[in-house]
Design brief:
Layout: E1 2-3, H1 6-10, E2 18-19, E3 34-37, E4 46-52, E5 55-60, E6 62-64, E7 67-76, E8 82-85, E9 93-98, E10 104-106, E11 109-112, E12 117-121, E13 125-128, E14 133-135, E15 140-143, E16 147-150, E17 155-157, E18 171-176, E19 182-185, E20 199-201, E21 206-211, E22 214-217, E23 220-223, E24 227-232, E25 237-241, E26 247-248, E27 258-261, E28 265-267, E29 275-280, E30 283-286, E31 294-299, E32 313-317, E33 320-324, E34 327-332, E35 343-347, E36 349-353, E37 357-362, E38 371-375, E39 378-382, E40 394-399, E41 410-420, E42 424-429, E43 438-449, E44 501-506, E45 516-527, E46 531-536, E47 544-555, E48 566-571, E49 582-592, E50 596-601, E51 610-621, E52 631-636, E53 647-657, E54 661-666, E55 675-686, E56 704-709, E57 720-730, E58 734-739, E59 748-759, E60 769-774, E61 785-795, E62 799-804, E63 813-824, E64 835-840, E65 851-861, E66 865-870, E67 879-889, E68 893-898, E69 907-918, E70 921-926, E71 934-944, E72 948-953, E73 963-972, E74 977-979, E75 990-993, E76 997-999, E77 1022-1023, E78 1033-1034, H2 1055-1058, ...
């Protein structure tokens, strides 16, 4: 059968039709009314009289002041029958009890002939059938309590009627036994306008159902602008009446269940007032055939007063609330005037599924109240399953399309919050009005899982998912738990689903502000394209997002349309307004598979700042299936007119891998904010990123930290500041502040306590590095790069590059390293070196800012380079190095070049201890203009191999730069040269201020020789020749050290020649003695023999070939002086004794 809600309420309320095919649990036979009075009132017993052919009248009873008491053994109302209580004058309350043992079946009409309030008390239970209705002018209460307590010891008991004390007092409360009976409502009755109202009391009156379990089985209850109170009690106790007639349940009293099934309704909408209160153990609401069960309050279309105020919906449940395809809502309907009340839910747990909805919304002229939900355990919002039609489940605070008013926002407190299968929480404005914030406090976990398994989410051309929640839209008709149809007066196209989300938004046609989202939890886990979004799509400001997670935040994965999970605050393309900031505080933050945190502007307005504080680690890794990287961004999009506020991060470790990015850039008309990162321990950036999409600029292809003015942008970038213990860039890991459009790139400031390590390239040949550039089509200046660290290592193509390729100046490079700087090696192509440079590239117009380095030790090796050069229309910057030790080794280079008509920069080296150059060069040069000067101050200088110090001009009439070298000593080996020549101009001056200059094979002839003849001659040369005139050469006098650097013999020291092996006999004026040899005074033995000696010689022995060396214990004979021998040599020895 079809439910028709009529024009007055449902035209602006919920769907064209509501289909109900519910089957009742049981169906009573048609019966005449059965009302049997008992005799407990004695002479004042109730009397049943025939009122007319279809109804009976109950007369008699005991009157006590304004109270009338009736007592029955049986009380039933048959189908199509009526039972009416007579209402004597001055009676305001009629109390009827059932003292028998049977349930009361109300299958027809129960009423009163006057305006008195009617009470029906049956501890055994009460059933309202399909045809049950009320015909009362006052309020109605049905209860399975044992009795009613009154003031002045009064008591009206259905269990112990003999103990009753009837009084004239007002009732104080309902007294329940240990097992109260059940109340069932199946009433399905139309009023005279065709609306289904079921059990209805007059406008402004109260309808109260309090029993054990209370069950609506396709039943209706209506109190237009009145109050409906439903309670379930599960133990003995008293429920008190408040002064306003509402009930007060003791907190420690066990409760029973309340169920609304088969599209049951509780409705208090009207022109003002109207509240619903439910107290139970569990509340369960179920749809039937996509037709929801409803609890509704609010303002209807016939309201004519802007001051009309609807009442509240308050639900207190000690157990679980389940909304299965059903709705609890407080609403100002379309074209109505007035304000809704608040919606408050208290429970252990809450579950919304299959389009279950909770909302407070305004579609007319008036404000919607606050949605407040407190669940001590879990809240689960499960969007819908495959077979359920309509919008996914959600909690909504809304200003509708045609509305003028504010929405009160959403407050949620729970232990765990789960939003899955496109479930949502939304506080948004689609009309003219503001919406308050979403505040969520989840003690343990928040889990948001994106699109349901058959869902579709729409993304724009940039891969940004539009998370407009499109909440309960037009509400013209209701046909399924918060399943709302779109219409011309609605809020958008609902043909497509959206991922699970928490959203606070200003929609496309809205004029107003949203206050944003505040979340406090232990852990936040977002997967499969889920969103937390605070954005503006219309005319108004979006609020900020503030998340505090004491544990971990994980943002991971994408939905089936490849849209990644994200936290965003944005100004949309057609919006006019500002987006709020995104502020996150957590222990660990993980962004993977395209997970993103973003505060950007795509329209006319400013984007907020992203501020993240992570006590331990921030990890961003990879990209989504659309090759959009994971990361943290604050951007001005290509369509935007406005500023982005930048990114601020504080953490212990920051890891960006596989192309993940932190980016504060502008693509449109506006300034990009600064990036400020403070990581106590380490920042690690691994830039490798495989991608298949076209990008605006080179920076887009790699992972890293970026601040940029991109192509077609007009605005400035505010730059990057990094403070950390260690900074590691690998596989094209990048830190870049550059301009590709019309605007200046910001400065890069890096402060590192320990080490900076920059190495390698990615598969496409992009290098790891720190960059500040003016791109070829850009108009603007690059920022400066200032680095402070203990150690700086650039290897395998790693670089620090500050350059201009367009119209603008390149910034300066300033590096302070308290320990070591190493620039080592080349990239895999063996061409691109590791380098530090500040350059004006070919076709660029602007000056280079130069390079200043201060360190303890500087090492350039294997092609490493420090470069301050110009190839375009601008001067090269100066290059200044201050270090204790400088080693330039194996094809490395310190250079300032000019390949244009502009000057090369000066080079200044201040080396406290040793400057050593091996097979490398320190040079300034120019192909068309003047060369820069080269000034070196060092303790000692050693030049080895083919090492050159030059300031040469290869073409044009410019002068060669001057070379001034001051050192304690200069030693030049091999083919090491010092040149300052000019091919067409004047050679530069060369000054060597040193007490000791040692040059291998050096001759003065080289001073005026053709420089071309001085290369590869295995000689250290000095040359300052020029085509016009030669420069002055001032070198120290080395004539006293002739052949000082000739090749030494292999045995450079013969100790036998230095120390005599015998004593020395002086010659000269000293008195000389004689030594006379005489014969032996004998003859030879035979002719030809020698003369025999006078002295016998014994055995004749040969001289031993091996003599023993001195050993410890042998006497030591010390030299007594140096003696000149006859050949002029000096030896150490002693004089022989006389």
């Amino acid at each position: 059968m079809k439910k028709n809600f009529g024009d007055t309420v449902w035209r602006s309320l919920l769907f064209n039709s509501l289909v109900v095919s519910g089957v009742l649990i049981f169906k009573c036979d048609r019966a005449f009314s059965q009302v049997t009075p008992d005799d407990t009132l004695g002479d004042e017993s109730s009397v049943v009289n025939t009122r007319d052919a279809t109804s009976d009248s109950i007369d008699g009873g005991a009157v006590r002041g304004q109270n009338l008491f009736h007592s029955f053994e049986e009380f039933n109302v048959g189908e199509d029958r009526g039972v009416y209580f007579s209402n004597p004058e001055a009676v305001t309350d009629i109390f009827s009890r059932v003292t028998g043992n049977n349930v009361s079946n109300i299958l027809g009409t129960l009423g009163a002939d006057g305006a008195a309030n009617l009470f029906l008390i049956n501890p055994n239970g009460i059933v309202f059938g399909e045809g049950a209705s009320l015909d009362v002018q006052g309020s109605f209460t049905a209860t399975t309590a044992d009795g009613i307590e009154f003031d002045e010891q009064g008591f009206f008991s259905a269990v112990n009627p003999q103990d009753s004390v009837l009084t004239i007092s007002v009732p104080l409360g309902l007294q329940f036994g240990s097992s109260p009976g059940m109340i069932i409502n199946r009433s399905f009755v139309l009023d005279n306008t065709g609306d289904n109202v079921g059990l209805q009391v007059p406008a402004g009156e109260n309808l109260t159902l309090v029993g054990g379990d209370v069950s609506f089985e396709a039943g209706e209850a209506t109190a237009r602008g009145g109050n409906i109170e439903i309670g379930g009690l599960g133990a003995a106790g008293t429920v008190a009446f408040n002064d306003d007639g509402s009930l007060s349940f003791p907190e420690d009293l066990a409760k029973a269940d309340v169920n609304l099934s088969n599209a049951s309704d509780v409705d208090v909408t009207g022109t003002g007032g109207g509240s619903v209160k439910i107290d139970a153990r569990n509340l369960r609401m179920e749809a039937e055939d996509f037709s929801p069960s409803l609890i509704l309050a609010g303002i209807t279309a016939d309201s004519t007063s802007a001051d009309a105020q609807a009442g509240d919906i308050t639900i207190n449940v000690t157990g679980k609330i389940t909304l299965d395809g059903s709705t609890i809502g407080n609403i100002v309907v379309d074209k109505s005037l007035g304000n809704t009340g608040n919606l408050t839910i208290n429970a252990d747990s809450l579950e919304l599924r299959n389009s279950g909805q909770i909302f407070a919304i305004t579609l007319g002229q008036g404000s919607a109240g606050i949605v407040e939900i407190n669940a001590s355990e879990d809240i689960t919002i499960d969007g819908k399953d495959l077979d359920f039609e309509g919008l996914p489940s959600g909690i909504t605070s809304l200003v509708g399309t045609s509305a003028k008013g504010d929405a009160g926002g959403i407050n949620i407190s729970t232990t765990n919050l789960n939003i899955i299968n496109s479930g949502r929480i939304s506080a948004s404005t689609y009309g003219q009005g503001n919406v308050a914030a979403i505040n969520i406090n989840a003690k343990e976990n928040i889990f948001i899982e994106g699109i349901n398994k058959d869902g579709i989410a729409r993304a724009d051309s940039k891969g940004n998912l539009s998370t407009r929640t499109i909440p309960p839209i037009n509400l013209n008709n209701l046909s399924g738990g918060g399943i709302f149809s779109a219409s011309p007066s609605g809020f958008g196209n609902l043909a497509e689903d959206i991922p699970s989300n928490i959203a606070s938004q200003v929609d496309t046609n809205a004029v107003g502000n949203a206050e944003g989202i505040n979340i406090s939890t232990a852990n936040l886990n977002m997967t499969n394209g889920s969103k937390i979004d605070a954005s503006t799509f219309g005319q108004g400001n979006a609020g900020g997002i503030k998340i505090i997670a004491s544990g971990n935040i994980i943002i991971d994965e994408q939905d089936l349309e490849d849209n990644a999970s994200s936290i965003t605050s944005q100004v949309d393309t057609n919006a006019v307004g500002n987006a709020g900031s995104v502020t996150i505080s957590t222990t660990n933050l993980d962004l993977t598979n395209g997970g993103k945190i973003d505060a950007s502007t795509f329209g006319r307005g400013n984007a907020g700042k992203v501020k993240i504080a992570a006590l331990k680690d921030i990890n961003a890794d990879g990209s989504d299936a659309k090759d959009i990287p994971s990361g943290i961004t604050s951007q001005v999009d290509i369509t935007a007119v406005g500023d982005a506020s930048g990114v601020t991060i504080s953490t212990t470790n920051l890891n960006l891998s596989n192309g993940a990015r932190i980016d504060a850039s502008t693509f449109g008309q506006g300034n990009a904010g600064a990036v400020n990162i403070d990581a106590d321990n380490t920042i690690y950036i691994d830039g490798e990123y495989i991608r298949d999409f076209i990008v605006f600029d080179e920076d887009k292809n790699v992972g890293g930290i970026f601040s940029a003015v991109n192509e077609r942008a007009i605005g400035d970038a505010k730059g990057i500041k990094i403070t950390t213990g260690n900074l590691i860039l690998t596989n094209a890991g990048t830190v870049s502040s550059s301009t590709f459009g019309q605007g200046n790139a910001g400065n890069i400031t890096i402060e590192v306590d320990n080490d900076i390590f920059v190495a390698g390239e990615d598969l496409e040949g992009f290098f790891s590095g720190i960059f500040s550039r003016v791109d070829k089509d850009a108009v603007g200046d690059a920022g400066n790069v200032a680095i402070s660290t203990a150690n700086l290592n650039l290897t395998n193509g790693g670089r620090i590059d500050v350059s201009t390729l367009g119209q603008g100046n390149a910034g300066a490079v300033s590096i302070t390293a308290t320990e070591n700087i190493s620039v080592d090696g080349k990239a895999s192509n063996e061409e691109e070196p590791s380098l530090i440079d500040s350059r004006v590239e070919l076709n660029a117009q602007g000056d280079a800012g130069g390079v200043v380095i201060s360190t303890n030790s500087l090492n350039l090796a294997n092609g490493g380079r420090i470069d301050a050069s110009t190839f375009g229309r601008g001067d090269a910057g100066e290059l200044k190095i201050n270090s204790n030790l400088v080693n330039v080794d194996r094809d490395s280079l310190i250079v300032s070049r000019s390949e244009s008509a502009f000057d090369a920069g000066n080079i200044s080296l201040n080396v406290a201890d040793l400057l050593q150059v091996t097979d490398s060069s320190i040079s300034t040069s120019s192909s068309q203009s003047s060369g820069g000067n080269l000034t070196i101050s060092a303790g000692d200088i050693k030049l080895r191999g083919n090492s050159d110090i030059t300031t040469n001009i290869f073409l044009g009439q410019g002068s060669g730069g001057n070379i001034a070298i001051e050192a304690d000593s200069i030693i030049a080996f091999d083919d090491s040269d010092i040149f300052a020549f000019a091919a067409d101009g004047q050679g530069g001056n060369i000054t060597l201020d040193t007490p000791a200059y040692f040059a291998e094979n050096f001759t003065l002839n080289s001073l005026t020789s053709n420089p071309d003849s001085l290369e590869n001659n295995s000689r250290a040369d000095i040359n300052a020749t020029g085509a016009v005139s030669s420069g002055a050469v001032d070198i120290p006098d080395v004539s006293s050290i002739q052949n000082s650097l000739t090749e030494l013999p292999n045995n450079s020291l013969n100790t036998d020649e230095l120390v005599a092996n015998s004593c020395v006999v002086p010659v000269g004026d000293r008195k000389e003695g004689k030594f006379i040899i005489t014969g032996t005074e004998s003859l030879p033995v035979r002719p030809g023999d020698g003369i025999p000696s006078k002295f016998p010689t014994g055995e004749v022995r040969s001289v031993p070939e091996k003599q023993s060396s001195w050993q410890p214990g042998d006497p030591i004979v010390e030299p007594q002086g140096a003696y000149r021998l006859a050949n002029g040599k000096l030896v150490l020895s002693r004089e022989c004794s006389q």
